[in-house]
Write a structure and sequence with these properties.
two-stranded antiparallel ribbon, 10 helices, globular, single chain, mainly alpha
Length: about 210
């Protein structure tokens, strides 16, 4: 795996959230919890602010504005930079593609993989299977199970039979055409077909 400027998976989770839209750290924390990502990535609210500041110093995110809600303290809204978006994509792809002895890295990579286009995830999973096969002669049964899992996942995604993958692919196609996530999910059924139906109840919400 390539040496990165950041090794804390919470930093990748922050980039993943900001890759969708600008948010302040509290909103990032709430988003990760609501989506159950805190089950795969250690989420410490206090540490999250420090991670955001470090990412900003590295030029991967930048302050966009300061907001205040009611009597709460002011909060800084961050946006991802072009360098941050590139770091996010490369880091996440590398996390999925490269086997390491820390199995939490694969769990985190899979938890955040929707941030990449499906075909890119498939390539990373297939690259991982190649590397796992090279190591297979000396690995234990747990890695054999991992090989079976990522191979089957890549095959299901490649075949388009994994639930939601059609809509997921369509989201990235629309993003490549210049649409924003807000625009897509403003009318998810129109843009994503049946895969957009689970998001329909949230249309018109506070976002």
């Amino acid at each position: 795996m390539a040496r990165r400027r950041f090794s804390n998976l919470l930093a990748l989770a922050v980039l993943s959230c900001l890759n969708e839209r600008p948010m302040h750290p509290y909103e990032i924390s709430q988003t990760l919890r609501q989506r159950g990502k805190d089950q795969s990535i250690k989420l410490n609210y206090g540490a999250l602010y420090g991670v955001a500041e470090s990412l900003a110093k590295a030029g991967l995110i930048e302050p966009r504005e300061t907001v205040r809600e009611g009597k709460r303290p002011e909060r800084t809204v961050y946006a991802i930079t072009e360098a941050g978006a590139q770091e996010h994509d490369e880091w996440l792809e590398d996390l999925i593609a490269t086997p390491v002895r820390d199995y939490h890295s694969l769990e985190a990579g899979l938890a955040l993989m929707a941030g990449l286009a499906p075909d890119r995830v498939v390539r990373a999973l297939e690259e991982r299977t190649v590397k796992l096969r090279v190591e297979l002669a000396s690995v234990d049964e747990s890695l054999r199970m991992e090989l079976d899992f990522v191979t089957a996942l890549a095959q299901r995604m490649r075949a388009g039979i994994l639930t939601g993958v059609v809509g997921w692919r369509r989201v990235h196609e629309l993003l490549a055409q210049g649409m924003t996530l807000q625009e897509i999910f403003r009318d998810p059924v129109t843009h994503l077909g049946p895969d957009g139906e689970p998001f329909a109840p949230f249309v018109g919400g506070s976002g």
